[in-house]
Design goal:
Layout: E1 6-11, H1 30-36, E2 45-53, E3 58-67, E4 72-73, E5 80-81, H2 86-99, H3 109-112, H4 126-130, H5 145-150, H6 158-166, H7 182-196, H8 200-209, E6 234-237, E7 240-243, E8 259-260, H9 262-273, H10 280-285, E9 308-312, E10 315-324, E11 327-333, E12 340-347, H11 357-366
Antiparallel strand pairs: 1-3, 2-3, 2-12, 3-4, 5-8, 6-7, 9-10, 10-11, 11-12
Helix pairs in contact: 1-11, 2-7, 2-8, 6-7
Length: 369
């Protein structure tokens, strides 16, 4: 069965407020966006939510079902797990602490967290955590989906999570290459707690969520459930779809444990890009790529201190993708906020090697010339 997309075109360029500058982007292509998320549920995904905002027009669409047992439609205001989009929030908190002169980005993280990393590891600066040039090895939990299903209520401490990585040698000398890894942001979360003396989640809430009135965004801690309304997440394990909507997020924690909505993520990005959360110097670091190559390739680095930069159809956007079991999400925007994109797709597999085809369809449709 295929769920029909529910579409609402909110604004068009002709309806722009007086005094706003004309967009250099083409108007949103409702037909292309509708097609991008059509055909759900499928073997690849059960539901999708897509929101476009900006001066070139706005559009919201949903497709598929929120619950396979009831066939209820996907609500446009659904809560979803944002996965590694959490890293942007973590980076903002660390950069705020740097602006307050409580953290020196160029100082070794070992200065702030003595004994947390193995003694044989070289010095790693705080900045190298944020832009993934640290060389730290990956978090190392079993990749078998059935293991995650069986352990979805198990609580892990940040120390236990980090220990799965630090039993391995460094991947490269700090600052010589870039390799994306959750390990960097687990350490960053521990750094926030050590410097402030408060829980990571409390710092995110006080510094960002309450400041911007993001009432639908949360750091769930060890609460495995999502607030209503939400879309169920499913994962294929041993050939069977398992409902993993309820799942403890202590493994990704400061690297990927948060929950939000499309509207809240758009508000967060708008405030961030406009400089409402960071001074100019620290904000500039989020839009500066390190002059290194991706580890093992000749590809230039594309992660800054908290964001990812990519060009699609000639349009450069900054943002972040996120993947948790049952949820694949993303938030991107042009630097001038002319186009802002938020999506959540309920994918049935968690493939770290690349994004599902539907995500590429969304990216192309959202930036179509």
């Amino acid at each position: 069965m295929t769920g029909a997309a529910l579409l609402t075109t909110v604004t068009t360029p002709s309806a722009l407020a007086a005094g706003s500058s004309a967009s250099t982007l083409p108007p949103v292509d409702a037909a292309a966006l509708t097609e991008a998320i059509s055909g759900l549920p499928s073997d690849e995904a059960t539901g999708a939510l897509l929101q476009i905002r900006g001066r070139a027009g706005c559009w919201t669409g949903t497709s598929g079902v929120a619950d396979l047992s009831t066939n209820a439609p996907v609500p446009a205001d659904a809560h979803f797990r944002i996965g590694s989009i959490t890293k942007i929030f973590t980076a903002v908190v660390v950069l705020q602490l740097a602006a307050e002169h409580r953290i020196d980005l160029d100082r070794p993280v070992q200065h702030y967290l003595p004994g947390v990393l193995p003694a044989g590891y070289p010095d790693i600066t705080v900045a190298q955590l944020l832009d993934h040039t640290s060389g730290l090895p990956h978090i190392d939990f079993p990749e078998d989906p059935q293991w995650m299903v069986d352990n979805r209520y198990t609580v892990f401490t940040p120390d236990q999570v980090l220990a799965t990585a630090t039993r391995h040698p460094m991947n490269f000398a700090p600052g010589t290459a870039q390799q994306y890894t959750n390990t960097n942001y687990i350490v960053a979360g521990m750094l926030v707690e050590k410097v402030t003396g408060r829980a990571y989640g409390d710092e995110v809430r006080d510094r960002i969520l309450r400041r911007l009135d993001l009432r639908e965004t949360s750091v769930p801690g060890n609460d495995p459930d999502l607030p209503e309304p939400y879309v169920h997440g499913y994962i294929r394990a041993n050939g069977t779809l398992v409902d993993v909507t309820s799942m403890n997020q202590s493994i990704p924690w400061a690297a990927g444990g948060m929950i939000s909505t499309a509207a809240d993520l758009d508000r967060f990005f708008t405030a961030l890009f406009r400089g409402e959360l960071l001074p100019a110097r620290e904000l500039g670091l989020m839009f500066t790529l390190p002059p290194v190559k991706v580890f093992g390739t000749g590809q230039p680095a594309f992660y800054s201190e908290g964001l990812l930069a990519t060009k699609i159809n000639g349009v450069t956007v900054w943002g972040k993708t996120g993947t948790r079991y049952g949820y694949t999400s993303g938030v991107f925007a042009t630097r001038d906020l002319q186009r802002r994109i938020v999506y959540s797709v309920n994918t049935t597999s968690k493939d770290e090697s690349g994004q599902p085809e539907i995500i590429w369809k969304i990216a192309n449709a959202a930036t179509a010339p």
